[in-house]
Design a protein that fits this description.
Distance between the termini: 41 Å
Bound molecules: thiamine diphosphate, magnesium ion
Shape: globular
Radius of gyration: 25 Å
Strand content: 5-15%
Number of helices: 22
Number of strands: 18
Oligomer: single chain
Strand order of the largest sheet: 2-1-3-4-6-5
Length: about 600
Amino acid sequence: MAKAQKIEKPRAEWGSDVVVDLLKAFEIEYVAINPGATFRGLHDSLVNYGGNHAPEIILCTHEEIAVALAHGYARAKGKPMGAAVHNVVGLQHASMAIYNAWADRLPVIVMGGTGPMDTANRRPWIDWVHTALVQGNLVRDFVKWDDQPASVEAVPDSFIRAYRLATTDPMGPVYICYDGDVQEKQLDGEITFPSLDRYPAPLPLQAPEEGFEKTIRWLLEAKKPVIIADTVGRKEAGFKALGELAELLAAPVLDQFGRFNFPVQNPLNLSGQNDKVIPRADLILALDVPDLEGATAKRAQERGNRRATPLLPSNAKIINVALDDLLLRAWATDFNKLREADLMITADTSIFLPELLRRLKAEKRLSQLSGEIEKRREDWGKIYAEKRAALEKETKTKWDEKPIAMTRLYAELKEALKSEDWVLTNGSSQGKENHYLPASKFNQILGKYKGGGLGYGLPASLGATLALKGSGKFCLDIQPDGCLLFTVSALWTAVHHQIPLLIVVCSNRSYFNDEEHQERIAVVRNRPVENKTVGIRIEDPNVDFGAMARTYGCWGAGPIAEPKDLIKTLREAVKVVKDGKPALVDVVCQMR
Ligand SMILES: Cc1ncc(C[n+]2csc(CCOP(=O)(O)OP(=O)(O)O)c2C)c(N)n1
Ligand SMILES: [Mg+2]
């Protein structure tokens, strides 16, 4: 939990002023909104009581954008911002983005308005159709907590609880609904404001002695230990310790990219090489991996096959370290397939891994194993070299192809950004850039939607860029076209709030992922495969994203169809972004 300021003398005059006191106390920098009368009290307090500064309103053109923006902010910052959504209608628009934040275990403080619950105070029609009993039910299955304080006096406790729950690992979004009467109540005395020092964040969960003893013994006994990591990189201490652990043991890392876990150019980074690595493993150390099945099996989806083929030898041991069993709901099955393990440890990897390292380094047995460890470092290094060679070969072979190859796009981006301290805020559908762009730092790749809900890319990238404002980082969104079309009006917010983001649109002019599915089904049913594009291609008309950007007042270029034109345009766009403005480059590219 962020250190809260003490508020000595609240000056609040109206109910919703108290909410603003709390937002300030918790150092919430921004509240993304689309305006609505159910939170007009809160809106007024943000502007006229809070001075529209810390928090500052970020105006969005859709509630899905507002929440996705706050989600992206949390990814980059590790702490929440707010989003305010209008009663039942705004909440319904926001719900998918709330689901994405939930599946990503990231905090967003979603606030809403309702009522008044006292029907005597309702305006005809509109207050009735915009009130629900209970409004939070709509999202209750995918927020950590929701509440509707019934009085101004109840607001501080409710907010503090919501903030604490949202920011305690496993984190998640919360929804607080403020009754119109509560927001608009004129205060006749001071509201007792609790001292926030009395509500500290809980200390993180550490493994018991047995967890360390077994993990160390098994790691030292194993001939080929393999590390799978998904969201370890959410905290810097976990990211650093994972890097050291892999080096110490010469254990390859398979990054699942829930967060960025391991430097791309480290020869132990064998991400994407699961079918070569997993069958050789005799021990899997799974760190914050909710989908262990996906990480240890081969997907063979030909002919509509849904079942993954396990790759892990049946005698291989599994150690699972995660917190995810602490946050389960029965509604969505985002808990994934039941995980197998020989040792289950519920601990925070950001404190488990540093302590594991400290103990391992003190082990005498480690030096006796040095020959064995160096030998396997060499073996894994060969697979890494093959992986790099394959990527380079693909880049070379496809260099001049039209439409532009994705590997060329990555190579040109790498070149255009070589002097920048860049962060990838969102990626392509296939995610090959995660293996290609030379990321090495904590949080350098922020990753894609965990909930699989399209529309995430642009607004989340804007949120991340806001979070990194002033840090000197250069933010890049590699943006699939179909995903962009859901939330493209976020470009207005980018321009209005001067959010310096480079958006590179991968215009394959298709919801291509589904083309692949329709092909599989056609093959199984012996139907014409060429019909796979019907209802899927985004052609006729082609969308001109460069022009679209310009209508929002954003610098826009493209569509770039000629491979040779790409680098020049990217360089121009980089300049615009460095001047503090957003820029969009539309690139006509290959399907994958
Ligand atoms: C809200 C939502 N609607 C529909 C889908 C189904 N879906 C999954 S991938 C995909 C296509 C994505 O197209 P695009 O973003 O252009 O990426 P591409 O596959 O073309 O690289 C669709 C429609 C989804 N995941 N989320
Ligand atoms: Mg597409």
